[in-house]
């Protein structure tokens, strides 16, 4: 089957899916004033594949036919570098916002591919073949795929089975000859309102008592009982023109609280169901790929921070001030250390289970931590250089009414810049570092693809501590 | 004259002032959907003075009669501590947002009082008496006062007179027998739309060539030629219920680009006009008081960060996690170091020119820098503990429609907390650390009352370096 | 009894105490080439008390006669401020090194005074009277007192009773009619080799199983069975002239591993023996006083860092460079934040058990953490400004031999400074930030008077979290 | 000519060179108690080349014969990776201390090769051929080479020609038919006392007025007039056994103040003499290579920090404590970010002037800054985990005398570790992070191979700012 066009994609979303936004059922996500922004943003993926300049990067042709590179299972460091470059390209097109409709799904597929054969070997199951079939289905139909992992969790000091309400983690409530029935809810599922399929993964390591929570599967978004409660956060498109929100009026990612009301899943779409000792490995394998996606898609964002600071330093006439150069040096190091570590993580990647190339876990997690830990400081430096006017400037209408526009044109003139252009630059920087969209990016930095603590834990676990201790023992003259 | 009531204050703002918002002239700021939020917020000052519990702190009775404590010129460390406590109280009432309608004006008056006698002594002017008369006028009429200091500046690498357009700094364009005529624009003037008077101060040290820019004065807000262009930023009241924006739907500070279209100022309201060598001292003296106001009013904000983190750690069930306690320790130290330095700056204050008690400049600037430098990291820690749900949660309508509300009630339950209460807590924390209001607070941290660089410069200048060098020379056996 | 002279003090140390240094028994600590440096350093305390300029600060005269202010039990914030000032003065005389021979002992006495009455009330013991008698003995005889608290601990993941060897924490091995017998060892006991008395305190909270480890007492240093194993670290005096080590050739603090070989302690010197639930409170009460001592005595050290940086910036001709001013701003803020928090901790102190004034625990711990956490960065900034020559410069003999001295005099000339003076300045700075003494200060910053973690824990515990949560709940409209 | 043996090397240093140590002329550096430690340390280079396990890495065989890999001019990223690996290996053998006797010289040669052809093209000089001849001489004779770059500088706010004494920067005082005569002094020249040749480079960009200071050349160490004044710093070998200083008793780098008393240099050894506009480029080209050497040789040091922290966490029984794991995560990220950036800098290297492969300047400088900026914090974390005993423990003799040894053996037992082994571990860690050697490493981190500021400047300069600004202008809808 050929790659889908933007129109194919948009049409495929009109399927009766159950989506709510601000308390109202959404009849068509492709025409809804807020949700359609997310659809248009997601279309970038299909548009780029049709662009001759990017075709080589976006599309692969091999024994399985011609298909989106996202669906190529990475087999080498070079595959990882290309995948990273593709994610970076799409996110730059997305105005610093990741597209994600193929990135996250293929991360989940890679993780499931790696673990399922071990599950099969231990339990005599047939998960591996099902994962491969699902992969082929998505690849061949050029689908958009969301992933629901994080459970709503209730009291986080307790495990799934110990919660007052057993539904606070998604779990199997019935096993039937033809499939399973699941109940519960997952929090902040990205791109679900404009995906075709939804992959569900367990959150974490589980004990024997939690075996019903060890469940993984994939279902179409219009599956009965699947309810998507869309987040109301940053509904920019409703309220502002592109003049005020040059990024978020055109680019949006929707999250949902994803409710499973006794949803039936046929066995051919079940990838784990009760093998509790593999819940942790599945969760982890997904994350090993997904954090690499994360560090790849953060690159245009950090580049935009550096570029914004440089642009504003210039128009404000402060590019030569010592403290400004110091902040630029800091921003550049912040951005390029992320790039260097991301590239090196790919280069140092290894082929592991099921022949899947996995980026180096230590470097991926260091890169992700570096990004997440330093993001707010980078934002502060950009705000600092941009000036207070990013939060005290005019609205779009002020520049339309000549009575007010003439003041703004006269008084917002900068170094080698007209008042209008400086205000345009300010509007962009405001949207990037001082808006709801900006706050969203801050929170994503801290929470998306795993928290700061999760990354630190992985750094310690994936480090070769024995070699380091052996080195110092040898130097110290101690037997090792 | 007695203290004004809230109604007196609100009525006083209906005076024909020239205010624009989003390209449209605002006929009455007290009824405008956005601007009235700022008016109601500012009313806190008048309401508190009528509250028996706070009367002693808010009101002073002495030889000048009964008047708002803000108008009391501080004469001792104890006066400074009381002023600080009053500012802290009002800001806590303001939901972490400073009220400012008397704070900033009295900071300017204190600064002008201190410098004007020196100007008079040097130039034979009568500024000191005028400042005193203006002070009595504001005090006796219990007025709300804004201060315009920061010029729009154009190319910041050039001084006022060197700009392409001479109006990029406010300056005297005519001197008449009865007064002066001024032209130019000041950026981000706070509370001007709901003040009664506007004090204008020069921005910085000026040279002989810039003497027309060495100008300070006060005018009523309805003065002809004075145009207030209100910022469109964070117009929350227009779009959200209090449920979604528990802070910013009720509390707002308006900034304006403040344009002086050949505004006439009578001599009795002129406090500096051409004595360029005093422009720097006036700017500095104001800041010495105003940064103390700043560190006082930041205390409820940093307390709210700590309280939010503790509340969310509890409802999320993570209060005992090691990394959470670590972040709490960091947040507490951040908040309480600010409090300790603020208090100590008052205690170490000294009576200086014109008998005005001035908080210790070194400690004030260290406190301000400590606050500003660490703010984003504190925000990150709160976002971290609060969880990703602060940006992926429901809108107000989702909790009104039973069809969606039941999901949210079921799935957002926390440790010892109902789903509704947890969402209410999340909404508050979102407004505090992940909203346009939150971004506004970030930018204010960096820019308001002077930048990080300005504070560092003052730290170096106000430190007794000779004593420190003498100490080490003595220890090193070097002659000092 | 009158205050002791320096000679009285030195003589009192010749008492047959059991001290080892580098494997050899030390017959007389007052004449030993290394240990005598510590004795001379400690004498500062007695010398200052005789100095008319400092008499008022150093000596108190009241109903108990005339005695060293260290022995005054603080009863008010003002007493705490004076005690802090005295400690600061003595440490400045000590070339940034604390004298400690009365500071630490009186911290322990204050802690024991506060807890012992509670022990007595619970257990019907007579500890309180014994502590008072011991206090009077030390005060009236103007004694030097060391405190041994930290046990050697073995495997720190295990409690005292769970260790392979029961002696890894000091414990009671026999209870006799006339007293107790104790065994074990304490690590890094400061000033013990030149003290008259040694107070022993338990390390931490103990369980019922650990009751024999809940022991506190005081003994003279020459008590049979008490063995002091002096540290070999930084034996500067043996190897360098004052020219190379202007600080450490004259100032030294000795630590010992303090071994208790079945030491007998008469009952009148026992302050805790088995009341395990009070071990934690005793340890904590000591620390509440001792960390205040710590932040007081760190002030001359941080002042010296600032002074060194300023002096070197000047002689190197880089005082006007932007990055140098930035580092100075950082160093000043580091030093003065410590001073402000220390002073404010005293001012906010409260009178607590047994009428003892206790500095505010939250501020003390924040100050201590601020100091400890930032010390290495401050050192880096001083090293940076001083230049690489602090580790590549000449030895003392190079300046004595004219053949080499002429090169150094010619080539080490600085801005407004001769080569000799610049080398003298470099030698001081080297000793302060790039020598064994400097490394010792780094390690002390991290470990002395409690670790960074201990301080963070106390910050969280001593903070009024309820008030902060109530504030945000009120703002959020949640019932508290 | 074959590679030299260790003996060949040692013998070659007995040539009558003029070296002073502590005011005395050193007749033979290979037998001097301090200087011979540096000689033995340097011998590592020759010993490794003879070791079959490392032969492939250490030795190259090509058209120029068989020679040390250091002398291979890098022509590709792979050559850079191998050079980096070799430097890492040698430094690990050196107990964290770089060997440097070929590293720095070949960095200078690479820099000179790259710039000299441009000088020749501009000025018609023959420098390029001379540099090549000198390179062949060093390579074919397997020589040890030092580099003197940093001038003593006097008042750093003034340029060379503006100093009170014209000799504060090395300069040409005479030009003769057969060569030039130079005078002045260079500060902290590493490995000069045990090198065969000395390359001299200018420090920085120079103006027309400074043309006599634009001088570069190479001379044998025994050249008349060349005086090496060795640093007295950390003369460990004289005073301590290997038991106390397991690193610095065996490994040492000597620095000298290097004086040129009217030294004659024949023209064939002159590489720059008056072409002032090339002084900056030569200085810079050297640094582009030398900072890559630096980040390569820091790897064993940062590995040793991580290994030390892990080893001590284990023996202290605290490896499972949350804060310890947090510090380990930080240390690992610190070390491995350096490694990742170093490797990526090589991989991203480009072939530039004269066909020399140059590591990516941006990544090299970011890596160097990352290392230098974070070093002190890393040291603090190791000190923290190691415990206070690193500065309060025994001397070597304490473990030789059974009377004291039995106490230490009993009381320093750790988790799964005897007292002796724990003390051995502590001794190593003390030497690494709390000794004069440790302080030396701190100062080197800040100053060697360029300061923190120099690295930040290079980060800004080598970044492609235009691309970043173009990206945001495109996103903002501004014409670029």
Please specify the SSE layout and strand pairing:
Four copies of one chain form a homotetramer.
Chain A: H1 6-12, E1 18-21, E2 24-25, H2 35-49, H3 55-58, E3 59-62, E4 65-68, H4 77-93, H5 103-123, H6 127-141, E5 145-148, E6 171-176, E7 179-190, E8 197-200, E9 215-220, E10 226-230, H7 236-239, E11 255-266, E12 270-273, H8 279-297, H9 299-316, H10 322-347, E13 350-351, E14 357-358, H11 361-386, H12 402-411, H13 419-433, H14 436-447, H15 452-462, H16 465-476
Parallel strand pairs in A: 1-10, 5-8
Antiparallel strand pairs in A: 1-2, 3-4, 6-7, 7-11, 8-9, 9-12, 10-11, 13-14
Keyphrases for this structure?
14 strands; 480 residues; homotetramer; alpha+beta; 6-stranded mixed β-sheet; 4-stranded mixed β-sheet
Structure, explained:
- 4 copies of one chain form a homotetramer.
- Chain A is of the alpha+beta class.
- Chain A contains 16 helices and 14 strands.
- A 6-stranded mixed beta sheet of chain A has the order 2-1-10-11-7-6, with no helix packed on it.
- In chain A, strand 6 (171-176) and strand 7 (179-190) form a beta hairpin.
- In chain A, helix 5 (103-123) packs antiparallel against helix 8 and helix 8 crosses helix 11 (361-386).
- The mean pLDDT of chain A is 96.
- Chains in contact: A-B, A-C, A-D, B-C, B-D, C-D.
- Chains A and B meet through strand 7, strand 11, helix 11, helix 12 and helix 14 of A and strand 7, strand 11, helix 12, helix 13 and helix 15 of B.
Could you give a quick summary of the protein structure above?
The structure is a homotetramer of 480-residue chains. Chain A is an alpha+beta fold and 480 residues long. In chain A, 48% of the residues lie in helices and 15% in strands.
């Amino acid at each position: 089957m050929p790659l889908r066009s933007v129109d194919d994609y948009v049409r495929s979303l009109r399927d009766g899916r159950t989506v709510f936004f601000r308390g109202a059922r959404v009849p068509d996500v492709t025409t809804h004033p807020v949700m359609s922004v997310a659809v248009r943003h997601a279309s970038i993926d299909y548009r780029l594949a049709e662009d001759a300049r990017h075709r080589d990067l976006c599309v692969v042709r091999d024994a399985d036919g011609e298909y989106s590179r996202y669906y190529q299972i990475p087999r080498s460091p070079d595959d990882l570098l290309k995948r990273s470059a593709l994610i970076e390209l799409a996110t730059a097109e997305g105005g610093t916002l990741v597209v994600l409709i193929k990135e996250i799904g293929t991360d989940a597929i890679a993780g499931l591919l790696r673990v399922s054969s071990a599950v099969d070997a231990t339990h005599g199951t047939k998960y591996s073949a099902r994962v491969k079939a699902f992969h082929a289905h998505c690849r061949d139909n050029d689908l958009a795929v969301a992933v629901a992992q994080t459970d709503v969790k209730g009291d986080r000091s307790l495990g799934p089975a110990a919660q007052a309400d057993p539904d606070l983690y998604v779990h199997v409530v019935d096993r039937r000859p033809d499939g399973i029935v699941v109940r519960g809810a997952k929090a902040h599922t990205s791109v679900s309102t404009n995906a075709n399929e939804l992959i569900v993964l367990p959150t974490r390591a589980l004990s024997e008592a939690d075996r019903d929570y060890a469940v993984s599967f994939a279902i179409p978004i219009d599956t009965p009982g699947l309810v998507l409660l869309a987040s109301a956060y940053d509904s920019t498109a409703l309220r502002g023109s592109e003049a005020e929100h040059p990024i978020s009026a055109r680019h949006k990612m929707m999250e949902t609280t994803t409710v499973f009301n006794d949803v039936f899943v046929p066995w051919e779409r079940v990838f784990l169901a009760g093998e509790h000792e593999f819940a942790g490995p599945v969760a982890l394998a997904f994350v090993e790929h997904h954090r690499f996606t994360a560090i790849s898609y953060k690159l245009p964002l950090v580049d935009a921070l550096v570029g914004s600071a440089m642009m504003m330093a210039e128009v404000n006439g402060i590019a030569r001030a010592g403290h400004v150069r110091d902040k630029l040096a800091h921003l550049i190091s912040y951005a390029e250390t992320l790039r260097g570590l991301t590239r090196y993580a790919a280069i140092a990647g290894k082929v592991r289970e099921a022949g899947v190339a996995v980026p180096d876990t230590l470097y991926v997690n260091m890169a992700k931590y570096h990004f997440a830990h330093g993001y707010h400081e980078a934002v502060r430096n950009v705000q600092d250089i941009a000036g207070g006017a990013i939060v005290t400037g005019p609205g779009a209408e002020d520049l339309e009414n000549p009575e007010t526009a003439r003041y703004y044109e006269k008084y917002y003139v900068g170094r080698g810049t007209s008042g209008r252009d400086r205000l345009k630059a300010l509007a962009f920087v405001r949207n990037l570092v001082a808006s709801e969209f900006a706050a969203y990016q801050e929170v994503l930095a801290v929470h998306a693809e795993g928290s700061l603590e999760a990354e630190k834990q992985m750094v310690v676990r994936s480090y070769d501590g024995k070699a380091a201790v052996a080195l110092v023992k040898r130097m110290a003259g101690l037997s090792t």
